Protein 1
Amino acid sequence: MGTELTRKFKFYIGIDVSKSFFDYVITQGKTVLHHKQVLNKDSEIESLILDLKQIAGFKLSNAVFGMEHSGLYCNALLHALHKKKAKIVHENANMIRNSLGNLRGKTDKIDAGRIAEYLYKCREGLKFWEPKRQILNQLASLASLRERLIATKNILDMPLKEMSKFATKEIIEQTRHHCQASLLALNLNIADIDNSIKLIWSGDEYLSVKMKQMMSVPYVGKTTALQILIKTNELIDINDPRKFAAFCGVAPYPHKSGTTVNKRTRTSSMADKKMKALIHICALGSIKTKGEFRTYYDRKTVGEGKNGMLVLNAIRFKLLLRIFACVNGNRMYQAEYIPTPKRIISQFSLLNVDVLQMKHVFCFNTKRVFSS
């Protein structure tokens, strides 16, 4: 997403999208000019743009369109407007709702008007939507399908495991017999999707490099690495580990007010829970084997008496820092990595020396020795 000064916009179009149709409200400042309901079809979207051009002084260059996240239902409208080079704001519904104070009543027309009001109110800091690469949309679709298949498999598989302790042998065999073909098919489908996903990202030079860099961090697997690329739009929308920690619910926040409210610092429930679960699995894996994270966990919990989940959350953040350090630094993970000081890099750049071509860089506490 990109930002730019938006004082030049004269028209603000709020669009409330549903499966079959969408409502749009056009405002000029705080004045409502027009409202209409249109079918959510390509032909009707084209007619919408023609209708807008009939308004006096209307141009796509001085208008901004806004809509809430509503999954697949927005796709046709988003791509049609993007082809026309229109400015589009595709915002989270909670962000819009929270910015407008206490709201009462709800209809499609009212919601479209509220989106237009949000565009005008926040016009100085709007983030404009840019489409993701098609290969990333393809990976996101396959990853979503994989999640649904795994959930379906668990629905069938978990009762069988539970029955083994409490049901008779005949009932267990009977149930297993009727589920066996479905479970086998699901396993094959999941394996096939895994192969397809790997084939796609390994065939793209940029994605292949970033995936390998993230997976070079110990305990980070291909599923977690892929989801980070999808959620951050290939590190374009979010490239700061602290912002991503807030996005996936790892960042802690204080809860204090005056002298009476003094609750403990905790993570926020407004987060991408699936992404948080993946990072949590990585953190759990890191403390199950001997290593620096296991030592750190034991020192904090046993030695200092800290809560286990608090320490695990700190490990989640440490893993995120390592992932983003490798991706932003365009390098593989190194346990004993020593970064080249920025001051020395700037000195060599003044001398037209390419620091990356230096054969050896040794950093010491008080002196630095360079050999080429």
Protein 2
Amino acid sequence: MDWLGLNKDHLLLGKDIAEFAVKELKETVLDFDKESKLFSQPWQKAAQLGLFGILLPESLGGAEMDLLSLIVCLEELSAVSPSFALAVAGQNVAGYAIHKFCLLPDKESILKKIIKGAPCGISFGDICNLECDSFENQVSGESSWILNGENCQYFLSFGSCRESWFILQNDRCCEFRKEEESLGMRSAGMGKFAVSKASLKEDQFLQEDGGVIMELFRVCGAGIAAGISMGCYEQAVPYARERVQFGRPISKFGMVRQMLSGIEESRRIGKLLTYDAAIKFGKGDKLASLVASTVARDLAFAAANYAVQVLGGAGYTKDYQAEMFFRDAKALEILFGPPQEEKELIGKIISD
């Protein structure tokens, strides 16, 4: 095991997923981003690789790996397509939440479908206006952002009335409206999710305690952010070495070197904090996930900003991934909440 907590299995897994990302995503990622299309074929191949059941037991068809394994996968995927990495993260968070906290008698059947690639929509925590009627157990309202909502069979969302997550089958009471022109993460099947008087049984409410689902979501978000920083590094450094101005590579200019240094700092610091949070997940250290989420997302946006500048005019076009990384890094801030909110939570935990 190395000092980052990675063993040989983690390193081999990272290598395999990096190869998958380059082979299945890299050639089409920019076109799919422009058109807000889902990666249908790569999604099915990801299911065959077991990417949707990384945290689930082998008895269900899952890989039964640790959270660090999932983060390694998300980081490698995000370095090519943050949208695809986010969709994979949502599928794994939904599966973990259902496995750990759901009381439905058919939950094993649901989990097997998720592992095989059936999309499960999941909302971004409390970014929604879904209200529960406590007397009739009916839920109505609209979720501003839901992930993997397109073509999904089940939705996992948060009801502010009971302060509880619940699972809902996609039927005539539900309506998903795809967001065609979102700022970033355009290939993650995101949109708005409306519910009209959907009846819920008691066993559809997840018996979660202590914000574990959001803690897992934060660590995954940090992993995606770390992957964006890595993708910016892989885009900007070769470009700077090859691009010649005034008779020499632009990597020889001091200002460009400072930007490359900023990208490298973002890549390393984001990785360290995210791996630390993954190792500490579920052990009572809520600060680890909050700090990783806040800092890694800030650093990803900084790295993307530097990458766009290193590429110059080309960085502002849709012909390079730098522009996509810039938008996707900003989208992470919106979807997971402003860093200021997380910093306030960090300060509260430290001061109380």
